[in-house]
């Protein structure tokens, strides 16, 4: 790190230079038939005016159903409270909650008040939380009590933010989270230093409508709106930023691909913080649909929701459909209302897609492929059946794809495998903390190099052939091995750690770790799991740990991760015997 | 640890991680999926089982825990392996 000696770094050695927007070139022309440039606040106001008293969010608890008009008013109230508390436009906010009705209301409230919003992973624990709140310099955090375990988020926040208990709400002062001033608990509670929901909403009651209008009109379509984390393959997850106009563009592109129409009922099992869940939610709103979210995924609840609300479109990652199909065989909920939807987030076996069509009855069901940075392809109901189950379809509207030779960058012939490159006017605006990275990953023609391998067949349908990087996808959740490796080094007995993904019957893939301990130090696999569980999201915790003296290396001294994957498979099959 | 102790401990874990499910009425052969356990809760059930009985489980071991009876048998096997 000698060459960076003058670069300010935090205690984990991360670059903490002030943020600068990456010098992005316009990577494609904005389509001529696209809606006028707007912000999310203005966009939703227009949507709500049209949809009025139609239910926007429905839950099995009828008291929690909310209409488009009510959601618009609730987001107004949130924006007014933000104004009343003196929180300036541009202050960074964060939202940490499962798929509850307040989630979209806070998103829209922040859009109206001009607060860029960080969407926090619902599985995060204190260590991840501290990292992401600090990286984005979050000033106000909205948090639920927990995700299944009441109080878990509150405890994690107290751990990540020493001094919170002795702070006045709105005047938090903590060395570990120097930018955080306000924490609002969405479901009312009484915790020192944290503002309860009703008290927060009460703040804005005196704010005039004209003040809200003035604030809203100061927000520009090109302002940053959303931050979310994607698990990169090198280092910690990258923080992606979307502007209002680019996220709206993505929303419309998805709605076009999904074929949603007013009155459709959309079930969203994936978490809203994930681009998949958020993208489906926003595209459903843009089409004036009714959304039936699952607070947390479980297959029985997914099927019961489909039956109860006569859901027409269902979305999820492959493992969700595998579990739902197993559950359907046992419970036989009525899914006759299903018509469409997509599977995304990981490569889906053709048999699963076919079963969703044939067994659950979603005849227009399809596959969507994309990255957190840009969406790419979708299958359509009019495509031949073998392409709807065995390919990832064709490009979404206004999206260009190339398949190139990984070494020389020339286009390969149909049928030949190469790296997938994607270009769209709605690519992310950049990475917040690594502004140069997106530029480096984008070529002179504006194509993003995805790192995924694939090919196009003779009929123009695209196919995934694998990943060229070490990313682990556990149940649709992207996990960066190097992020876990870095965390493991904080254990006093660990000298070195390597994490790889291995095949899992249940999750598709799951992480395992190879660890070298420091001389004279000992730790058990269970001890390391417990150490991880205390501080990082549970899906990132390696399922098991193997202790080794050395790693298999390449001639140039790099760890051969493919060899570690083979070793893990051998060791696990020995353990079974 | 005998079978009844393992069963009692597993019921306590389930009651803690699936707070609204009628664990006291759960029979040995009833499918655990019927309790409406979400994926996150499953992860924590595995974690609690590991912590309580002192062994490490793979995520895909969830597939082996179809009923309480299967889970008791699984735990017994792992304890025996551990010696």
What does this structure look like?
- The complex is a heterodimer of chains A (577) and B (83).
- Chain A has 577 residues and is an alpha/beta fold.
- In chain A, 32% of the residues lie in helices and 21% in strands.
- An eight-stranded mixed beta sheet of chain A has the order 7-6-5-3-4-8-9-19.
- Chain A is globular, with a radius of gyration of 24 Å.
- Mean pLDDT of chain A is 87; it is low at 1-28.
- In chain B, helix 1 (3-17) packs antiparallel against helix 2 and helix 1 packs across helix 3 (68-82).
- Chain B has 83 residues and is mostly helical.
- In chain B, 54% of the residues lie in helices and 0% in strands.
- At the A-B interface, helix 10, helix 11 and helix 16 of A face helix 2 of B.
Give me some keywords for this one:
heterodimer; A: 577 residues; alpha/beta; eight-stranded mixed sheet; seven-stranded mixed sheet; 26 strands; disordered N terminus; B: 83 residues; mainly alpha; Non-ribosomal Peptide Synthetase Peptidyl Carrier Protein, Chain A; 54% helix
Give a short summary of the structure.
The complex is a heterodimer of chains A (577) and B (83). By secondary structure, chain A is an alpha/beta fold.
Set out the fold topology.
The complex is a heterodimer of chains A (577) and B (83).
Chain A (H helix, E strand, L loop, with lengths): L39 H12 L3 E3 L8 E2 H17 L8 E4 L5 H12 L3 E3 L6 H10 L4 E4 L8 H9 L21 E4 L9 E2 H7 L5 H9 L6 E7 L7 E6 H15 L6 E4 L6 H12 L3 E4 L5 H11 L3 E4 L1 H14 L8 E4 L6 H9 L7 E5 L4 E4 L6 H6 L3 E2 L4 E5 L13 E6 L6 E2 L3 H7 L6 E9 L5 E6 L4 E3 L2 E3 L1 H8 L5 E11 L3 E10 L7 H11 L9 E3 L13 H16 L1
Parallel strand pairs in A: 3-4, 3-5, 4-8, 5-6, 6-7, 10-11, 10-12, 12-13, 13-14, 25-26
Antiparallel strand pairs in A: 1-2, 8-9, 9-19, 14-15, 15-16, 17-18, 18-20, 20-21, 22-23, 24-25
Helix pairs in contact in A: 1-2, 1-3, 2-3, 2-6, 2-7, 4-5, 8-9, 10-11, 11-12
Chain B lengths: L2 H15 L21 H15 L14 H15 L1
Helix pairs in contact in B: 1-2, 1-3
